[in-house]
Amino acid sequence: MVTGTEIGGNGYAFIINEKGEMIISDSVQKDGNGRIIQENILTGETFPHETALRMINGEKGIDHVIMDGKEKIIAYHGLKTVPWSLAIIIDADEIVSPALMIENNIITLKETTLTVLDQDIKWIAVIVGVLLIFIITGVMSLTGRLTMEITDPLEQLAIDAARIGAGDLDHVLEIKTGDELELVAASFNAMIAGIKTITAEKDRLETASIEKTHEAQIIQESNQNLQSILYMLPIGIGIMGMDDSSILFANKALLDVLNCTSTEQVLGHSGFEFMPVIQPDGRKTADLVADLFQKESSATEMQCVKSGGEAFTARIHSINTIFKGSRASIAVIEDITA
Question: Among residues 258, 300, 308, 314, which one has the fewest Cβ atoms lying within 10 Å of its Cβ?
Answer without folding.
Answer: 308
